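Q: How would the C-alpha coordinates look for this protein?
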Amino acid sequence: MFAVIKTGGKQYKVAKGDVLIIEKLDVTDGEAVTFDQVLMLGDGDDITVGSPTIEGAQVRAELLETRKGAKILVFKKKRRKNYRRTHGHRQVETVVRVTDILAKGAKPAAKKAAAKPAAAKKAEAKPAAAKKAPAKKPAAAKKPAAAKKPAAAKKAPAKKTAAKKD
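A: Here is the predicted structure in C-alpha coordinate form.
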Protein backbone atom coordinates (compact mmCIF):
# COMPACT_ATOMS: atom_id res chain seq x y z
CA MET A 1 0.00 0.00 0.00
CA PHE A 2 1.21 3.53 -0.75
CA ALA A 3 0.00 7.05 -0.08
CA VAL A 4 0.73 10.55 -1.33
CA ILE A 5 0.98 13.04 1.53
CA LYS A 6 1.49 16.77 1.66
CA THR A 7 3.80 18.37 4.25
CA GLY A 8 6.01 21.43 4.21
CA GLY A 9 4.54 22.61 0.90
CA LYS A 10 5.74 19.46 -0.87
CA GLN A 11 4.16 16.13 -1.79
CA TYR A 12 5.72 12.73 -1.08
CA LYS A 13 4.80 9.23 -2.21
CA VAL A 14 5.32 6.95 0.80
CA ALA A 15 4.96 3.29 1.71
CA LYS A 16 5.24 1.53 5.05
CA GLY A 17 8.86 1.48 6.27
CA ASP A 18 10.05 4.37 4.04
CA VAL A 19 12.50 6.90 5.48
CA LEU A 20 11.79 10.50 4.41
CA ILE A 21 13.71 13.74 4.72
CA ILE A 22 11.14 16.52 5.05
CA GLU A 23 10.88 20.14 6.19
CA LYS A 24 11.45 20.78 9.90
CA LEU A 25 8.71 19.64 12.31
CA ASP A 26 8.44 20.90 15.90
CA VAL A 27 8.55 17.44 17.49
CA THR A 28 11.24 15.81 19.63
CA ASP A 29 13.17 12.71 18.54
CA GLY A 30 11.39 9.38 18.93
CA GLU A 31 7.86 10.82 19.01
CA ALA A 32 5.06 9.77 16.67
CA VAL A 33 3.97 12.12 13.88
CA THR A 34 0.62 11.99 12.07
CA PHE A 35 0.13 13.37 8.56
CA ASP A 36 -3.56 14.16 7.93
CA GLN A 37 -3.23 15.64 4.45
CA VAL A 38 -3.39 12.41 2.44
CA LEU A 39 -3.96 13.24 -1.23
CA MET A 40 -4.07 9.70 -2.62
CA LEU A 41 -4.12 6.10 -1.42
CA GLY A 42 -3.21 3.10 -3.52
CA ASP A 43 -3.23 -0.65 -2.95
CA GLY A 44 -2.40 -2.52 -6.15
CA ASP A 45 -5.07 -1.62 -8.73
CA ASP A 46 -7.35 0.00 -6.12
CA ILE A 47 -6.54 3.75 -6.12
CA THR A 48 -8.42 6.42 -4.17
CA VAL A 49 -7.88 10.07 -5.08
CA GLY A 50 -8.99 12.83 -2.72
CA SER A 51 -10.55 16.15 -3.60
CA PRO A 52 -8.18 17.62 -2.41
CA THR A 53 -7.62 15.25 0.55
CA ILE A 54 -9.13 11.95 1.67
CA GLU A 55 -11.35 12.36 4.76
CA GLY A 56 -10.17 10.30 7.75
CA ALA A 57 -7.04 8.90 6.07
CA GLN A 58 -3.76 9.24 7.98
CA VAL A 59 -0.12 8.36 7.62
CA ARG A 60 1.73 7.75 10.87
CA ALA A 61 5.49 8.08 11.19
CA GLU A 62 8.20 8.02 13.83
CA LEU A 63 10.58 10.96 14.03
CA LEU A 64 14.17 9.70 13.82
CA GLU A 65 16.14 12.96 13.99
CA THR A 66 16.19 16.67 13.30
CA ARG A 67 19.36 17.86 11.60
CA LYS A 68 20.85 20.44 9.30
CA GLY A 69 21.06 19.67 5.61
CA ALA A 70 23.93 20.21 3.19
CA LYS A 71 25.40 23.69 2.90
CA ILE A 72 24.28 25.80 -0.04
CA LEU A 73 26.46 28.72 -1.10
CA VAL A 74 24.73 31.84 -2.43
CA PHE A 75 27.00 34.07 -4.53
CA LYS A 76 25.92 37.51 -5.73
CA LYS A 77 27.89 39.54 -8.23
CA LYS A 78 27.37 42.70 -10.27
CA ARG A 79 29.81 42.95 -13.10
CA ARG A 80 32.14 45.89 -13.39
CA LYS A 81 30.96 47.27 -10.02
CA ASN A 82 33.34 45.37 -7.72
CA TYR A 83 30.31 43.90 -5.89
CA ARG A 84 30.67 40.30 -4.67
CA ARG A 85 28.88 38.68 -1.74
CA THR A 86 29.05 35.06 -0.60
CA HIS A 87 26.50 33.70 1.85
CA GLY A 88 26.05 30.13 3.15
CA HIS A 89 22.82 28.45 4.24
CA ARG A 90 21.96 25.11 5.88
CA GLN A 91 18.27 24.20 5.96
CA VAL A 92 16.95 22.39 9.04
CA GLU A 93 15.31 19.10 8.07
CA THR A 94 13.53 16.25 9.82
CA VAL A 95 14.04 12.54 9.15
CA VAL A 96 10.97 10.32 9.67
CA ARG A 97 10.16 6.63 9.13
CA VAL A 98 6.62 5.73 8.01
CA THR A 99 5.06 3.20 10.39
CA ASP A 100 1.41 2.97 9.26
CA ILE A 101 -0.84 4.02 6.40
CA LEU A 102 -4.43 4.18 7.62
CA ALA A 103 -7.31 4.34 5.15
CA LYS A 104 -10.61 6.00 5.92
CA GLY A 105 -11.76 4.91 9.38
CA ALA A 106 -9.03 2.26 9.82
CA LYS A 107 -7.46 1.79 13.24
CA PRO A 108 -3.72 1.34 13.79
CA ALA A 109 -2.40 -2.13 14.57
CA ALA A 110 -1.65 -2.54 18.28
CA LYS A 111 2.03 -2.92 19.07
CA LYS A 112 2.97 -6.15 20.77
CA ALA A 113 4.95 -5.61 23.96
CA ALA A 114 8.04 -7.78 23.99
CA ALA A 115 8.42 -9.81 27.18
CA LYS A 116 11.58 -8.92 29.05
CA PRO A 117 13.93 -11.77 30.00
CA ALA A 118 14.08 -12.69 33.70
CA ALA A 119 17.69 -11.50 33.96
CA ALA A 120 16.71 -8.04 32.74
CA LYS A 121 13.92 -7.84 35.31
CA LYS A 122 16.35 -8.73 38.12
CA ALA A 123 18.81 -6.10 36.95
CA GLU A 124 16.09 -3.45 37.07
CA ALA A 125 15.14 -4.46 40.63
CA LYS A 126 18.62 -3.62 41.99
CA PRO A 127 19.14 -0.01 42.98
CA ALA A 128 21.42 2.05 40.77
CA ALA A 129 23.80 2.74 43.70
CA ALA A 130 24.71 -0.95 43.92
CA LYS A 131 26.40 -0.84 40.52
CA LYS A 132 30.16 -0.51 40.76
CA ALA A 133 32.01 2.19 38.92
CA PRO A 134 34.54 0.88 36.40
CA ALA A 135 38.08 0.64 37.76
CA LYS A 136 40.30 3.52 36.77
CA LYS A 137 43.56 2.83 35.02
CA PRO A 138 46.69 4.17 36.72
CA ALA A 139 47.99 7.32 35.15
CA ALA A 140 50.99 6.85 32.88
CA ALA A 141 54.25 8.05 34.44
CA LYS A 142 55.34 11.29 32.87
CA LYS A 143 58.91 11.56 31.67
CA PRO A 144 60.81 14.58 32.97
CA ALA A 145 61.32 17.23 30.35
CA ALA A 146 64.77 17.16 28.77
CA ALA A 147 67.03 19.88 30.15
CA LYS A 148 67.58 22.65 27.64
CA LYS A 149 71.10 23.36 26.60
CA PRO A 150 72.18 26.92 27.21
CA ALA A 151 72.17 28.86 23.99
CA ALA A 152 75.61 29.83 22.86
CA ALA A 153 76.05 33.55 22.43
CA LYS A 154 76.11 34.45 18.79
CA LYS A 155 79.18 36.23 17.65
CA ALA A 156 78.96 39.09 15.21
CA PRO A 157 80.93 38.51 12.04
CA ALA A 158 84.27 40.23 11.96
CA LYS A 159 84.25 43.54 10.12
CA LYS A 160 86.41 43.82 7.12
CA THR A 161 88.69 46.79 7.25
CA ALA A 162 89.86 48.24 4.03
CA ALA A 163 93.24 49.88 3.80
CA LYS A 164 92.90 53.63 3.42
CA LYS A 165 94.52 55.23 0.47
CA ASP A 166 95.92 58.77 0.90
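The first strand starts at residue 2 and ends at 7.

The radius of gyration is 35 Å.

Upvote if useful.
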